[in-house]
Amino acid sequence: MTITAGTFTGDSRHAGAAPAVSFANVNKSFGAVRAVADLDLRLYPGETVALLGPNGAGKSTTLDLLLGLSRPDSGTVELFGATPQCALEKGLVGAMLQSGGLMEEVKVRELVRLACDLHPRAYPVDRVMEQAGITEIADRMVNKLSGGQEQRVRFALATAGANDLIVLDEPTTGMDVTSRQTFWGAMRRQADEGRAVLFATHYLEEADAIADRVIVLHRGRILADGSAAEIKAKAGARRVVFDLDGEIPEAALRTLPHLAGLEVSGRTVRIQSHDADATVHALYGLGLYPRNLEVAGLGLEQAFIAITDAATAGEAVSA
Amino acid sequence: MKTLVKLEITRTLRNKKFMFFSVLYPAALYLLIASGAKSDEKLGDTGLTFPVLYMVSMATFGAITAVLIGNAERIAKEREKGWVRQLRLTALPGRGYVTAKIASAAVVSLPGILVVFGIAAAVKGVRLEAWQWVSLTAVIWAGSCVFAALGVAIGYLATGDAVRPIVMIVYFGLAALGGLWMPSAVFPHWLQTITEYVPTHAYAGLGQAIERGDAPGARDVLLLVGYLALFSGAAAWLYRKDTHKA
After folding, report:
1. Does the distance separating the beta carbons of B85 and A100 come in below 8 Å?
2. Is residue A11 predicted with pLDDT exceeding 70?
3. Which residue of B has its CA nearest to A120?
4. Would you say A220 and A64 are in contact if contact means Cβ atoms under 8 Å apart?
5. Contact at CB, B86 and A102, closer than 8 angstroms
6. What ipTM was reported for this prediction?
7. Which terminus of chain B, N or C, has less C-beta within 10 A?
8. What's the pLDDT band for A315 if we cut at 50, 70, 90?
9. pLDDT tens digit sequence for A111-157
10. Which domains does chain A have, with CATH numbers?
11. Hey, what's the torsion of the CAs at B26, B30, B31, B37, to 10 degrees?
12. Closest CA to B124 of B28, B59, B46, B34
């Protein structure tokens, strides 16, 4: 069973511009598992794009393919119109991998100096360290850092030079709230300079707050591709929750207008609606008397869960 | 790339435990093996005494230990931690990585060689011409690059727990077959034929030629250059091709 969700494409805004990243009909399987299936994707300079998906959705495989760390079974992956390898050698891409370790037995400054030395269009070492917020830990040994500090060092390695594309895999893992904000501030500046930024994240609120385009991956396919607002609208923008006394007329509830999802647990009914006002109005029209009625906006997180659940189950939203 | 070579050397020197072991181990082994040998006892038709022969064997063996095992295990560990993955996202060419690894291995093997020579001269009374000491050091040091490259290649070929057994088999196999433990003169004929093509045999042969007062054999040099090209080519190729994930 395949659920094909309509996609919002960001392409129309970029007619004529050369894409920074281009996936054309890309497939990658590991044994019987299709990690990435018929992936078509274009990212453009200046875009900040979030890659969202549950574990096993194909995010890491997508990033590996993009960076040339693995090769597609079929289809083509291009960065700035060339192979990933070629783009890396020209210093067009900076990447921060979740699985990217650091060299041990060296000091932070030595490692950053190495990254700058290897970059064809490097920035000064001090500037890179300052922007990554690691100036104070410059003389610390790399293997003695905390998780958040390690992440900032990785970020410094990814931004050692003038890249046109920055790829980040779960970049803020292990950072506290303040450093997370500082981090995204630095990232925003990169995007404002006309770079394409692509990041995978577990923190959905980050995608909501930072990305101007969100791509939802599920089982190796793109389920949704649009702004955070579009994704939310797609999943049903508002949530209506209420309790009912007596028998719950589920069949009647399903006839409510603008319904995007319905879930009954005990006395409580949870509804996702594209137009909460109309739905609630119709609810009273059914002659029902909802108690403890709440109408709230759906966060991207719920939207995301709703979209992936709908794709998994096809119909019923699990409790 | 110069920064990478420098950094690889720096961090190797910082690893005190590894340095200590790699430098003193061959000397200790030399004392152990050469302890029973009489200083004037000649071995077969080589015209060399046991202490001299074992000095070259152990310096050679020690250099191989340091560069082969050290490189293979450290690289396998780096791959596991994902550092190599990160490095592959830079503009660094494969040969740059291999060069840096060989250079850092050379830093460890040189003092090991010198300590064996020092002990052989001081304790076992080995006496050679000045040019012999200098060229022995140079030849054994240069030759260790072949095995450093092999170490890099093995570090890429094997993963995790498999590295140690594989590198040990290669290491002991090469040492024994090359005649580093027992002179190959005592091997049966068919084994001697194989030994002729083993890189460790050619490697030890360089040093033995100098001990006898000859220049290293052209065949040994060619064989080693061939192996160096093969191992470092394989290492560079494996580095670029590696898709192993942490």
Report:
1. yes
2. no
3. B91
4. no
5. yes
6. 0.81
7. C
8. very low
9. 999 999 999 999 999 999 998 889 999 999 998 998 888 888 998 99
10. 11-232 (3.40.50.300), 238-297 (3.30.70.100)
11. 180
12. B34
User: Is B164 touching A (CB cutoff 8 A)?
Assistant: no
CB-based contact B85 A99, cutoff 8 Å: yes
Contact between A28 and A72 under an 8 Å Cβ cutoff? The reply is: yes
Structure tokens at A149: 């500090």
Tell me whether A113 touches chain B (CB under 8 Å).
Answer: yes
- Alpha carbons B170 and B187: distance in angstroms, whole number: 19
Nearest to A128 by CA among A156, A158, A150, A93: A156
Identity at B233, one-letter amino acid code: G
Which pLDDT band holds residue A172 (cuts at 50, 70, 90)?
confident
> What is the identity of the amino acid at A296?
A
- For residue B182, the Cα-to-chain-centroid distance in whole angstroms is 17
The verdict on A118 touching B (C-beta cutoff 8 Å) is: yes
- Partner residue opposite A115 with nearest CB, options B2, B14, B90: B90
Q: What pLDDT does A39 receive?
A: 92
Residue pointed to by tokens 């060069």:
B99
A299 confidence band (pLDDT: 50, 70, 90): low
Supply A300's token pair. 């991207």
How far is residue A42's CA from residue A9's CA, in Å, rounded to a whole number? 9
Task: Supply A196's token pair.
Answer: 């394409």
d(CA B34, CA A286): 101
pLDDT per residue as tens digits for the range B2-59: 888 889 888 888 888 878 888 888 888 888 887 776 666 666 666 677 888 888 888 8
Strand order in the sheet with A165-169: A93-96, A165-169, A196-200, A48-52, A213-218, A221-226
- Point out the residues of chain B with pLDDT beneath 70: 37-47, 242-246
Determine the residue type at B174: L
Determine the 3-state secondary structure of A34 from DSSP. strand
The SS3 of residue B214 is coil
